[in-house]
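quick one: protoporphyrin IX containing FE bound model?
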Amino acid sequence: MADGNGKGGVLTAVKGMGTHLRNSQVWNSIFRPGSPARADSTDSPRNRAYVVMNNVLYHLHPVKVKRHGLKVSYVLCLGGLSFFLFIILTVTGIFLMFYYRPTSPAAYFDLQALATDVAFGQLVRNMHRWGAHLMVITVFLHMTRVFYHGAYKPPREFNWVVGIILLLLTLLLSFTGYLLPWDQLALWAVTVGSNMGAYAPVFGEQVSFILVGGVQITADTLLRFYVLHVLFLPFVIVIFMAVHFWRVRKDGGISGPL
Amino acid sequence: MAQLPENLLRRAAEARAKAEGIPVEEALAEMKGEAPPAGADAAAPSAGAPAPVAASGGPVRDLDAESSKFGVPRPLLDRGMRARARKDGTAVPAMAGAAVAASPAAGKAAPAAPAAPGGPPPAAGPPPGVRTQRLLTVVKAGAIQGTTKEPQDKVNVWPHLLAIEFVALLAMLALLTLMSAFIDAPLLEFANFNQQPNPSKAPWYFLGLQELLAYFDPQVAGVLLPTFGMIALMFIPYVDRNPSVRPSDRKLAFSIFTVFFMAASILTIFGSFFRGPGFNFVFPWRDGIFFDDLKTLLE
Ligand code: HEM
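yep, here:
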């Protein structure tokens, strides 16, 4: 022990266990051939292709991309970051759902308790809120970069339209979430926002009535916005995102350089 | 049969010859529908044999010959023939050779007519344990999709793109976590229907619209402009017929979009920071900021 062999022995033992684990059937059943996590993996062009192709990643990425698509200055990662923010929002949102009841007055006091009684509660709530604001910004900037690159030109016209729908859905998600804290900011911001909609000709009042669940915002609106926010809109946006990503690939990958 | 390139035919013939143990020339001739070369021992009835004529004058088929010619098992051919006859409402074609013995009317339960003595032997299948393969069709290049792509400079997604994405993702996560660690989300007083705060502002991404409300009729600012804006955005790809993506060719498109982009940004910033009580104009540095989203940061 004193001669230092003990440390080396432990290291070797751990290493041996690692190798054993990485050669096991369980491990190899999880990581498909080509994955760098496998013990037998080597770095070869074929295995680099397999990392993507033999993997759920293949749903999002082709094996190879045009070289200019790598330049961060080209896509600025904005689409990808929008998607990443969406994922963060889903994870943090699920966390919040454990502590939140969409009724008046419980909603407000649940959020108060979250800040004081729940470990990392306030942090997660902050991440959810700032993440939502950031997502609106990244989606908007993503649209702008697509425009300036002319990346909506054939054959990508329809993906641009899908994109606009995604933008609308993002705004709606953000707007419905805005009411949920049930404080003065939430109540009156949503009141002002939905009053604008009520001015719409012909169906404006009906649409506003359905969304709000009455002629003006009440505790019923809270439940309505909650269901839209945690279930309906995420469901719809995921479908449109799937179409969006699929079209990016089917339309020939990222558009060409300027 | 479709016109097959010679080399493909040759390859198929070789494979078949190997599987059936017959000379390559014979297999090739058979596939082409020619008479087998002289001297070749005909294991199967020649496809070139003249088709017998049925007494009825109807179509005549020699299933054994077809079976060996096309390599389709005879029972399948027979079944297909009957199915077609049933569908078309026509009589089952008469059979050449011994197969005629099976009366078409009585043939519903007899898929393959037994070979009568003296008739040609049933098509010899491959020897047991040997699997043969058939070339169903050859799609000529360009028939479905043009393949005149120029070679492109491409790189592997792994590791190059995924590494970049991972870094971008970490950077975003770091930004968000830091922001959340230092700025708390606002939670004002409990919602009170009887006490409207002054000013009352919509969420910031709608503040451009609320700003427009200060200038136009609500029908115009709150409804017509946003609706029109969204529709106009959706139609951009169909209205802009200019195929070029080079900025120098797109001056008009650039200018129009930039004007709207700037207008939206300015209106939003204006609505957020330059509007105070009564939604009246304020200087944020003189009168304070009335923007509750950042209330915790500003306090
Ligand atoms: C939730 C919102 C959205 C997400 C998650 C998203 C995601 C993505 C991703 C990951 C890409 C790949 C390239 C890149 O990162 O730039 C992409 C491309 C694209 N997006 Fe989006 N997007 C969203 C909204 C939009 C919007 C609002 C528009 C436009 C109105 C749009 C139009 C397009 C187009 C046309 C492409 C193809 C660009 C090219 O080939 O260069 N997307 N999107």
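Chain B touches chain A through 73 residues (CB under 8 Å).
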